């Protein structure tokens, strides 16, 4: 996945349309939600303000059809014009056990990039794991590996307080051996109380084409919708 740089001088209506389509798809999928389990987060870091939300949903408890959506926005304090937005939607079908296959894609300023993916998910007590590998069938095909790992055990006798630890990672690379395109790691460590999660977060992003590396560390707060 690639962050979308917002350039006010070259911002075209078709890009707005693409983002609107992704946002509508995301909201449509949330209509199947019966529980408050869509994390919506903001982070105020030393370099930028970020907002992200994601969800994994099925149409109903016995359905094999699922949806994964991820939205992320980042706005640097010093250069607002370099704000970035990322939107991804994938529709899955469970084929065997905890393995799913599906397709979808993500939006960039150049348009829509399709993806074909295979996913694996597992939840054991306080630990949950989601990972998928995707192929982008474009002229110079890319691959992506995306992972979310969360550890959320109870730490108080009345079960009101929980520890919250999370890792979200993504690696996008060229399948013709041209190396990786982008890599990102989002780390969270904090507490949970009555559905609120808060603590310290660090976002690390590497872009190989420009040799850029950025780190953004600060406080986060999130709520389940």
List the helices and strands and how they pair.
Blueprint: E1 4-5, H1 13-30, E2 39-45, E3 48-58, E4 65-76, E5 84-96, E6 99-108, E7 111-124, E8 127-136, E9 142-151, E10 161-174, E11 180-193, E12 196-207, E13 212-224
Antiparallel strand pairs: 1-5, 2-3, 2-13, 3-4, 4-5, 5-6, 6-7, 7-8, 8-9, 9-10, 10-11, 11-12, 12-13
Task: Give average pLDDT, whole number.
Answer: 85
Strand content: over 45%
Helix/strand/pairing class, anyone? mainly beta
How far is the N terminus from the C terminus?
25 Å
Oligomer: single chain
CATH class categorisation: Mainly Beta
* CATH homologous superfamily (4th level) name: monomeric porin ompg
Q: What order do the helices and strands follow?
A: EHEEEEEEEEEEEE
Domains, number: 1
CATH architecture: Beta Barrel
Helix content: under 10%
Describe this entry's structure for a reader.
With 225 residues, this protein is mainly beta. It has one domain: monomeric porin ompg (Porin), CATH 2.40.160. Helices cover 8% and strands 63% of the residues. It has one helix and 13 strands. The chain has one helix at 13-30; strands spanning 4-5, 39-45, 48-58, 65-76, 84-96, 99-108, 111-124, 127-136, 142-151, 161-174, 180-193, 196-207, 212-224. The protein has a twelve-stranded antiparallel beta barrel. Strand 11 (180-193) and strand 12 form a beta hairpin. The chain starts with a strand and ends with a strand.
């Amino acid at each position: 996945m690639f962050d979308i740089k917002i350039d006010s001088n070259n911002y075209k209506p078709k890009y707005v349309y693409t983002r609107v389509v992704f946002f509508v798809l995301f909201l449509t999928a949330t209509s199947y939600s019966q529980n408050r389990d869509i994390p919506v987060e903001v982070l105020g870091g030393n370099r930028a303000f970020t907002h992200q939300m994601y969800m994994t949903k099925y149409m109903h408890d016995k359905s094999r059809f699922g949806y994964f959506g991820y939205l992320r926005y980042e706005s640097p304090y010093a250069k607002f014009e370099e704000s970035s937005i990322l939107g991804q939607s994938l529709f899955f079908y469970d084929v065997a056990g905890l393995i799913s296959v599906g397709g979808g894609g993500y939006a960039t300023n150049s348009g829509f990039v399709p993806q074909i993916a295979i996913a694996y998910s597992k939840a054991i007590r306080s630990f949950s794991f989601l990972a998928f590998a995707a192929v982008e069938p474009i002229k110079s095909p890319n691959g992506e590996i995306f992972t979310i790992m969360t550890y959320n055990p109870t730490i108080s006798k009345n079960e009101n307080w929980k520890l919250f630890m999370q890792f979200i990672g993504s690696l996008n690379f060229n399948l013709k051996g041209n190396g990786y395109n982008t890599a990102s790691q989002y780390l969270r460590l904090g507490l949970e109380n009555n559905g609120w999660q808060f603590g310290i977060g660090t976002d690390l992003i590497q872009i190989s084409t420009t040799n850029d590396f950025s780190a953004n560390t600060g406080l986060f707060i999130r709520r389940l919708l």
